[in-house]
Design goal:
The protein is mainly β. The chain has one helix at 96-99; strands at 20-23, 34-35, 44-50, 60-62, 64-67, 73-87, 107-119, 125-126, 133-135, 140-150, 157-158, 165-169, 178-179, 187-190, 195-199, 211-216, 223-229, 235-241, 251-252, 262-263, 269-274, 281-286, 297-305, 314-316, 319-323. The longest helix has 4 residues, at 96-99. A six-stranded antiparallel beta sheet has the order 7-6-10-3-12-13, with no helix packed on it. Strands 15, 18, 21, 23, 24 and 25 form a six-stranded antiparallel beta sheet that branches. Strands 1-14-5-8 form a four-stranded antiparallel beta sheet, with no helix packed on it. It has two domains: 20-190; 195-323, S-adenosyl-L-methionine-dependent methyltransferases (Single Sheet), CATH 2.20.130. It contains one helix and 25 strands.
């Protein structure tokens, strides 16, 4: 069964141009050496310098940040903090705070826990920005990433030899790091372009572990497919929202009779569908052609009835981030 949901509310006050920037320019996400930075097997802090020329010296609103993993896996972290700041110097210093206040100020664009990044090798994988950064078009840009409580799954990413990085392994809030020279990871910044990315983990059902997935495109005027399966349930309930901020999210659901399950985002609306012969629930979202929606992240997951697995009678899935855009 297919359902269509039009979005009628524009969440941003100004339209974003359709563009994204790969750093360094023209870099492929499928080539280059691989380094476990910033997702290593220890707590890590990493700062990367992006020059204004990398961004076309154009002002814009950054709503997504993608890296290029060298392997396909689910990389779990207890927490991840990402900040961005304007930078007017010629090169980063080894003192982290100085780089975020020259001139700064730093803005937090991602701050979450239980961050399970579902990586696809040799492609651009967005890391889940929650808030935009207004880039002024004249200063350089510093990206500051702190990852703690890492899993045993490495997340090596492709690097290049054009942009500087400062880093600290076994990070415990020390003030300084090591100058890694021009060995920063390749990256892609989204300023109005659409993007899809999966995160999180599904909890175990009685017979299966249903997974959430996307198809189609979150481009304005396009159709975005949302899917959940396989399951033996006759229905699934898609959960849609726009907020993933701490401290509410992610929410562990033991208090609702579903220990080990998480809800990663708010619920603004739901869509209930019947499953097909493969045990998959499917729905279509019609994205309106509203230019001010560009740069808005939409979060989607699913709840699956499962009366035998827990007292709550349901399980929840991983989730997807659909960055609406052009």
């Amino acid at each position: 069964m297919l359902a269509r949901l039009p979005f009628a509310v524009a969440l941003l006050s100004s339209a974003l141009a359709a563009q994204s920037f790969v750093v360094p320019a023209g870099a492929s996400p499928a080539t280059g050496s691989c380094v476990g930075m910033p997702f290593t097997t220890a707590a890590t802090r990493c700062q990367v310098l992006v020059r204004n020329s990398d961004l076309g010296s154009q002002a814009g609103v950054i709503s997504g940040l993608a890296l290029a993993p060298c392997q396909s896996a689910v990389r779990g972290s207890v927490s991840i903090l990402v900040r961005m700041a304007h930078f007017s110097g010629a090169a980063l210093s080894t003192t982290f705070a100085n780089n975020l206040s020259s001139p700064g100020p730093a803005r937090t664009v991602l701050d979450t826990t239980s961050h399970d990044w579902r990586m696809v090798a040799h492609t651009w994988n967005e890391i889940g920005l929650q808030d935009p950064f207004a880039y002024n078009g004249s200063d350089h840009l510093v990206i500051d990433i702190v990852v703690t409580g890492t899993s045993i799954v490495l997340a090596d990413t492709h690097i290049d030899t054009t942009n500087q990085r400062i880093f600290a392994f076994n990070y415990t809030n020390q003030a300084t790091g090591t100058n890694g020279g021009n060995t920063a990871f390749k990256l892609k910044l989204f300023l109005g372009d659409a993007n899809l990315q999966l995160f999180g983990s599904s909890c175990v059902g009685w017979f299966t572990r249903p997974l959430f997935s996307f198809s189609g495109s979150p481009r304005l005027g396009g159709l975005l497919g949302i899917h959940c399966g396989p399951t033996y349930a006759s229905t699934v309930v898609f959960l849609l929202g726009f907020d993933t901020h701490r401290p509410t999210w992610p929410m562990e659901l033991s208090a609702f009779g579903a220990p080990g399950c998480r809800l990663y985002h708010e619920i603004m609306t739901t869509i209930t569908v019947f499953t097909d012969v493969t045990g998959t629930g499917n729905s279509l979202l019609s994205i309106p052609t509203v230019s001010s929606l560009a740069g808005t992240p939409l979060y989607v997951s699913a709840a699956v009835p499962d009366l035998l697995i827990n007292a709550g009678g349901f399980t929840t899935t991983n989730y997807g981030r659909a960055l609406l855009g052009n």
